[in-house]
């Protein structure tokens, strides 16, 4: 107890101890020993076997490690309250060696906690309280006959879908649910020192959110969808009863009868000695595979297809957990049974289970006296046959169709269990396949320890990969993965587990990679992870690296290139870089607030990250850009913040169903989004140095400038007259109606007229005329839909308002991004255009006819009939081609990287143009036959494709937003190279032919 | 581990490795394929274009003209065409240009080489008669022709060829010859083709005692199915037994279908002509026999002949009776306008009547009369009348038939006019010519002038 008190006074930073309840913490501390060390005394060395961990009570120690090149470096200096050596505790393995050396820097007092003690305490009886979610009695009574499994089922709430990037829950949220992934990838991150650190990626069949649930704590991590994510969401708390894990009953089966008595059921057929895995009660069930479209269900029974499906989902908890709508139906087939036909008989081998789509199924059991006893009648939405499948035993019932019966027959299902892995609390997922094949996947609660194994398979010694904090073991058999155990994070784990489940081949080079790097896939093969996409093909810089650089304030293409080296070689990826950078003249902002205004309007507040808020004039707009799905998109919005607002910019945006940007703002933007804004700009504003009255005609969301004026005048306490005529379709659609009414009622100089056009009709010429008469000398500000603006303008002109008093908002269209200037762009365009025209002329117009008379001064055809000329032109073409092709070396060979690539490209095009001109002279525009024709196709084809490429290069420099050009260009370039490939051989043979015959 | 590193390197660069390997493989395959084509028999991949009508049959026998890595040599041209050029007394023989006085002309056009004007298979280059220089090439040397011959004043140079002159064979327009043949009748009275005299020549050779053979004498090996046709044939009549034709050239073993080499043993001149002409040139180059399918001339769709001696000459019914050989055999395949019009022509009428015995022997005009005419050849001091089987000598340009063929029956004036009328040729001389060639008048005028000049001199 003495120790415990001491410890309590020291803030203990070890999560492994912190995470235990207070009782346990105290007990551990009670077992700990106090150790005194002198200055420079070595506590343990690298390579020692770790038996215990230490907490510093007083004094300090330094932690050292040896680098690969043999140098000892200082990792950290630890002081009172800190701990070290906890890795020994976490792994709980005796063969694990220390990877650091710890030396006391001053005389210190330490608390030594032995691994054995820790484990003893943790695995003691005082485990988490049993509180399994009970299904209400009524429901149980209904289900017990047919499906004993439902007894222990967690209550399935719903199936949820998340779009790419959408947050499932955030760190710190209250945890009241846990999730099973049906499809897609979930990204688990944790904030560390202001930065998000990727912990892992989870995929189908894995689950998350269970820790907070078990331990009644806020979420410790943030989970986001990567790509489209679908999950089953379970409600309630999971916990498990220690009684159920006693070693004695781990091999004992509980019968359905016992289940009926209300006790939770544990399925413990799978006792894996060496892993010390004990599997606890079932807490959930779901099915594999995808649900096909229910197109063939007998529709006479229930409305249309969707109705059928929806009613099925409502009726069966199992249905609810099944992913719908995907194509793959490998796991499932539909079977039709006539009245009285048998689905399966008692004693049959079980290899599938069944869901009733329509009709009724009768479950019967043979009594000892030979009579058949009815066990249950099941109807649509219920299921049967799963027990035998899970237990791998013969069918206990006979099932016959009662009337026409349509069932979906599934090959496998998944069950969830609480469990204990090496005496640590864990959750286990079991995949039950037909033929008794099973895969068990276990995750230790609160730790990055995973174990996956295939049941009934003997495996060799594992392939092990180790580095500090990480240990991965793979079990292989005949080139297939049979199991794995991992300690520490492994972002690719989900994909690896899929390998086991899908029984896919693991190639020798994958194992080679594993031995070296601990991975099964090269970085660039993780196609689904967009960050790994290579942007600069020449230097291999990935999107992830570039994104990181942009996040680190590389805001121009130049800076980005400087930092990463991308685009420094051929420069063809510069447009992509520009796209990643976005507009460099804009200021990155933080999202301060999102305020709902009306049914489909929200206000958004942004604060510049590095600069102050620039002063604005009421009515001005800002340009705003955001990275949406990896691309920068720009829009212009009127500022609705008042003059003098120095904390933020506010814009008010209506959600347009087909508007990319407004939808993104409303639905997807979060605090992690990259947003930038320009300074306030535009000539449509209320000059604050005048006192003339101002009249605003606003239509719909065009009220935003009026709002800014209203707020500004109100804030400035100005006496200037302001009249706002605000039209919206219905009164529900008025944005900021309260603010308008409030301010106008407070101030005598501000009047607001609200016009719900559907009820009151739209504004009439007389209304405008009256307003004009009422406010002489006023300036008129119009903003709204195009037709609204036009109508008001016409009315004002009719009322003889001078045109300089009428102001309409004209947004400046979003400008282009700052792509580095392509040098010699016009020359490139001209050159490739000329080449293209010459090449097309060659193709379109046949040969130049031979001279028809010898009496002309000079026969042009001498050029292509005379042997000397032919050789001169031929070899010149060859020479030009070779010179032109040196561009490829400039691009691909490091030693060749001199000069601006743009000039090299121009040279390439120039030589091509010259070579083509000479080809006219060499051939007289005859395409040739047979072999010569092939050569001609290769040559002229390459030229035509090449001009396409350079045209797109030019286009890119002018239209950086058009990324399609980049992809088309890549395609064209590949075609260009492909068609050039046989050219060396063809030319060689062509030259031989010239002398051969 | 070393092997791990190799694995990893390979895997990391797998895309590039595959690309380069593919390229090397494709390149190698391409090189092997093309080199193989170049060295091997079938070089059709490298044909640069369509060959002329004169050579297309043998375009796949590259070595007939090309010397590997040494181009096309003059000798190879002369191998086939030399004799003919000599026979027609070539007007522009190479040695004529060897005269140093003509050196300046040679810079304009190298007339010493065949290939200066006859370039083969270059797309779009070949003009009619296989000439590849512009048609007014005569101007190079004969620019001042009007000075020497005022009658030619104003005639464009691209009209020299065709109706009148022929670069190589100009004998029909020799001035002396024209003068000699002034004012001739269109057709002579009762012209007759000369008789062949092979039998007589043959009889003079003591090695081949001509004895009429009958079936009793036949020397075919046992098991050969014998018909009775042979007994009636000219061959039996001339003492040629079965083995005379059916024996292999060296081992005297029975051959079912003897080829032209068998015939050659006795009919050397005829076979040589055959091999030099359109029907046998492929055989002469060691190619497969010419077939109607390969022909560029219109051929009858139902004819699928592979040409050898037997295509025209019946094997066992062989007879000097030419009813079959001289007309029917030709029309079995040839289907052009000229051939089809033959049976409506006066020539055929004469032939028909001769065949019916209404007209004397030799008075009919068959296809062979003009295109495979009989020639008298002196050999070993004996005059032999043989059929010229090289039809190329009497085909194109048709003006070269004037002296050797047409003028056997027709006067020169009539001949020149008729040959110049393209329509007339197509309808096989069924009308009279609508064209008039003034060569005779020109010659006559010039002769008169010369006489005047001479008399003046006197």
Fold and architecture overview:
The complex is a heterodimer of chains A (997) and B (458). Chain A is α+β, with helices and mostly antiparallel strands and 997 residues long. In chain A, 31% of the residues lie in helices and 28% in strands. The longest helix of chain A is centred in the C-terminal third of the chain and has 29 residues, at 930-958. Chain A is extended, with a radius of gyration of 38 Å. The model of chain A is unreliable at 1-12, 124-155, 236-276, 283-331 and 812-819 (pLDDT under 50). Chain B is mainly alpha-helical. Chain B is 41% helix and 3% strand. Chain B contains 25 helices and 4 strands. Classes of the chains: A alpha+beta (997), B mainly alpha (458). Chain A binds chain B through residues 508-509, 512-513, 515-516, 522, 847, 849-855, 859, 865, 926, 928-932, 981-982, 984-986, 989, 992-993, 995-997, and chain B through 1, 3-4, 7-8, 10-12, 23, 26-27, 30-31, 34-35, 38, 44-50, 62, 66, 68-69, 71-72, 109, 119, 122-125, 133-137, 139-140, 157-158.
């Amino acid at each position: 107890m003495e120790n415990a008190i001491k410890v309590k006074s020291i803030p203990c930073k070890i999560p492994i101890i912190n995470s235990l309840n207070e009782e346990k913490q105290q007990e551990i501390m009670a077992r700990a020993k106090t150790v005194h060390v002198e200055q420079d005394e070595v506590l343990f060395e690298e390579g020692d076997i770790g038996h215990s961990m230490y907490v510093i009570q007083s004094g300090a120690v330094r932690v050292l490690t040896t680098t690969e090149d043999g140098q000892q470096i200082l990792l950290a200096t630890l002081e009172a309250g800190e701990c070290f050596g906890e890795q020994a505790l976490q792994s709980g393995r005796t063969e694990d060696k220390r990877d650091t050396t710890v030396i006391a820097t001053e005389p210190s007092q330490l608390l030594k906690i032995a691994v054995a003690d820790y484990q003893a305490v943790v695995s003691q009886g005082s485990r988490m309280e049993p509180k399994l979610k009970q299904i209400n009695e009524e429901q149980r009574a209904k289900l017990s006959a047919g499906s004993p499994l439902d007894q222990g089922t967690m209550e399935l709430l719903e199936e949820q879908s998340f779009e790419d990037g959408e947050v499932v829950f955030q760190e710190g949220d209250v945890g009241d649910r846990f999730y099973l992934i049906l499809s897609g990838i979930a990204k688990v991150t944790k904030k560390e020192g202001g930065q998000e650190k990727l912990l892992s990626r989870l995929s189908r069949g894995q689950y998350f959110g269970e820790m907070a649930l078990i331990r009644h704590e806020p979420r410790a991590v943030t989970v986001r969808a990567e790509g489209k994510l679908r999950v089953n969401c379970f409600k309630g708390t999971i916990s498990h009863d220690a009684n159920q894990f006693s070693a004695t009953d781990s091999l004992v089966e509980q019968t359905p009868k016992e289940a009926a008595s209300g006790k939770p059921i544990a399925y413990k057929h799978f006792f894996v000695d060496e892993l010390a895995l004990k599997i606890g009660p079932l807490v959930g069930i779901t099915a594999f595979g995808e649900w096909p479209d229910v197109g063939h269900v007998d529709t006479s029974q229930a409305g249309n297809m969707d109705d059928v499906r929806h009613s099925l989902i409502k009726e069966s908890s199992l249905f609810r957990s099944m992913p719908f709508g995907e194509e793959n139906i490998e796991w499932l087939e539909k079977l039709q049974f006539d009245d009285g036909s048998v689905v399966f008989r008692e004693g049959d081998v079980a290899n599938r289970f069944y869901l009733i789509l329509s009709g009724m199924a009768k479950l019967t059991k043979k009594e000892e006296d030979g009579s058949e006893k009815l066990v249950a009648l099941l109807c649509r939405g219920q299921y049967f046959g799963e027990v035998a499948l899970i237990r791998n035993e013969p069918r206990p019932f006979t099932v016959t169709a009662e009337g026409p019966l349509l069932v979906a027959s599934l090959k496998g299902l998944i069950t969830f269990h609480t469990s204990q892995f090496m005496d640590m609390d864990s959750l286990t997922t079991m995949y039950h396949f037909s033929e008794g094949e099973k895969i068990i996947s276990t995750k230790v609660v609160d730790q990055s320890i995973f174990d996956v194994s295939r049941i009934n398979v003997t495996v060799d010694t594992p392939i092990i990969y180790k580095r500090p904090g990480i240990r991965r073991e793979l079990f292989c058999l005949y080139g297939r993965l049979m199991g794995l155990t991992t300690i520490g994070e492994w972002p690719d784990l989900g994909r690896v587990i899929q390998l086991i489940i899908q029984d896919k081949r693991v190639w020798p080079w994958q194992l080679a990679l594993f031995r070296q790097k601990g991975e099964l896939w090269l970085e660039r093969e993780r196609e689904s992870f967009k960050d790994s996409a290579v942007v600069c093909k020449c230097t291999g810089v990935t999107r992830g690296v570039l994104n990181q650089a942009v996040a680190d304030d590389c805001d121009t293409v130049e800076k980005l290139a400087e930092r990463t080296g991308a685009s420094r070689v051929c420069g063809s990826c510069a447009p992509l870089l520009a796209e990643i950078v976005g507009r460099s003249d804009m200021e990155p902002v933080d999202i301060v607030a999102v305020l709902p205004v009306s049914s489909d309007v929200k206000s958004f507040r942004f604060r510049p990250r590095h600069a102050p808020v620039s002063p604005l004039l009421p009515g001005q707009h800002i340009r705003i850009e955001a990275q949406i799905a990896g691309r920068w998109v720009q829009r212009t919005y009127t500022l609705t913040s008042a003059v003098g607002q120095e904390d933020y910019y506010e814009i008010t945006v209506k959600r347009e169903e087909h508007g990319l940007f407004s939808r993104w703002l409303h639905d997807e933007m979060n605090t992690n989004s990259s947003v930038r804004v320009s300074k306030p700009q535009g000539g449509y504003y209320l000059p604050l140095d005048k006192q003339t009255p101002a009249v605003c005609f606003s239509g719909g969301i065009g009220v935003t400038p009026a709002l800014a004026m209203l707020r500004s005048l109100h804030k400035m306490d100005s006496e200037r007259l302001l009249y706002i005529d605000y039209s919206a379709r219905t009164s529900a659609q008025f944005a900021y109606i309260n603010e308008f009414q409030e301010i106008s009622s407070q101030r005598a100089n501000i009047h607001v007229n609200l016009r719900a056009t559907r009820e009151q009709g739209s504004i009439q010429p007389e209304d405008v005329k009256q307003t004009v008469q009422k406010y002489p000398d006023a300036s008129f500000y119009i903003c709204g839909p195009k037709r609204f603006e036009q109508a008001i303008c016409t009315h004002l002109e009719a009322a003889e308002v001078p045109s300089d008093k009428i102001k309409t908002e004209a947004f400046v269209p979003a400008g282009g991004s700052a792509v580095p200037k392509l040098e010699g762009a016009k020359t490139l365009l001209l050159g490739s255009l000329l080449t293209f025209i010459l090449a097309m002329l060659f193709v379109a117009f046949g040969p130049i006819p031979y001279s028809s008379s010898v009496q002309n001064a000079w026969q042009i055809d001498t050029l292509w009939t005379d042997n000397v000329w032919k050789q001169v032109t031929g070899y010149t073409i060859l020479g030009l081609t070779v010179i032109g092709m040196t561009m490829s070396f400039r691009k691909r060979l490091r030693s060749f990287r001199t000069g601006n690539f743009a000039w090299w490209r121009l040279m390439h095009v120039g030589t091509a143009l010259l070579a083509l001109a000479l080809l006219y002279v060499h051939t007289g525009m005859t395409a040739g036959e047979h072999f010569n024709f092939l050569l001609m196709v290769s040559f002229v084809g390459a030229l035509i494709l090449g001009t396409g490429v350079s045209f797109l290069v030019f286009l890119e420099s002018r239209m950086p937003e058009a990324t399609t050009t980049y992809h088309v260009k890549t395609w064209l370039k590949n075609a260009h190279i492909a068609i050039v490939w046989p050219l060396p051989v063809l030319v060689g043979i062509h030259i031989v032919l010239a002398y051969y015959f | 581990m070393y092997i791990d590193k190799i694995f990893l390197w390979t895997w990391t660069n797998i895309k590039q490795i595959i690309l380069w390997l593919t390229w090397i493989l494709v390149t190698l395959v391409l090189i092997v394929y093309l080199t193989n084509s170049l060295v091997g028999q079938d070089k059709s991949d490298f044909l640069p274009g369509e060959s002329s009508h004169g050579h297309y049959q043998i375009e796949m026998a590259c070595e007939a003209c090309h010397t590997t890595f040494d181009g096309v040599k003059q000798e190879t041209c002369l191998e086939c065409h030399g004799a003919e050029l000599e026979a027609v007394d070539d007007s522009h023989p190479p040695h004529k240009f060897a005269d140093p006085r003509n050196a300046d002309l040679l810079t304009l056009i190298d007339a010493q080489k065949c290939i200066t004007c006859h370039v083969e298979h270059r797309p779009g280059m070949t003009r009619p008669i296989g000439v590849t220089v512009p048609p007014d090439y005569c101007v190079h040397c004969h620019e001042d022709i009007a000075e020497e011959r005022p009658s030619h004043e104003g005639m464009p140079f691209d009209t020299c060829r065709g109706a009148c002159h022929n670069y190589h064979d100009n004998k029909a327009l020799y001035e002396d010859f024209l003068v000699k043949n002034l004012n001739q009748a269109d057709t002579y009275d009762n012209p007759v083709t000369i008789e062949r005299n092979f039998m007589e020549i043959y009889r003079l050779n003591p090695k081949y005692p001509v004895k009429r053979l009958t079936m009793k004498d036949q020397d075919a090996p046992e098991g050969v199915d014998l018909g009775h046709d042979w007994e009636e044939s000219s061959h039996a009549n001339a003492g040629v037994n079965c083995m005379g034709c059916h024996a292999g050239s060296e081992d005297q073993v029975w051959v079912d279908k003897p080829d032209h080499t068998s015939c050659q043993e006795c009919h050397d001149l005829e076979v040589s002509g055959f091999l030099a002409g359109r029907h046998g040139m492929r055989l002469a180059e060691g190619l497969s026999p010419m077939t109607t399918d390969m022909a560029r001339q219109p051929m009858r769709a139902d004819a699928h002949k592979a040409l050898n001696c037997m295509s025209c000459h019946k094997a066992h019914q062989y007879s000097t009776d030419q009813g079959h050989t001289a007309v029917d055999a030709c029309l079995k395949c040839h289907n052009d306008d000229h051939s089809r019009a033959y049976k409506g022509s006066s020539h055929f009428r004469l032939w028909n009547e001769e065949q019916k015995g209404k007209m004397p022997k030799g008075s009919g005009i068959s296809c062979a009369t003009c295109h495979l005419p009989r020639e008298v050849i002196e050999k070993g001091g004996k005059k032999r009348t043989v059929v010229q089987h090289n039809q190329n000598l009497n085909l194109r340009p048709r003006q070269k038939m004037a002296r050797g063929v047409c003028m056997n029956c027709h006067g020169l004036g009539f001949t020149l006019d008729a040959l110049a009328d393209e329509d007339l040729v197509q309808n096989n001389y069924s009308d009279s010519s609508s064209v008039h060639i003034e060569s005779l008048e020109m010659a006559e005028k010039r002769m008169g002038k010369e006489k005047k000049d001479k008399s003046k001199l006197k």
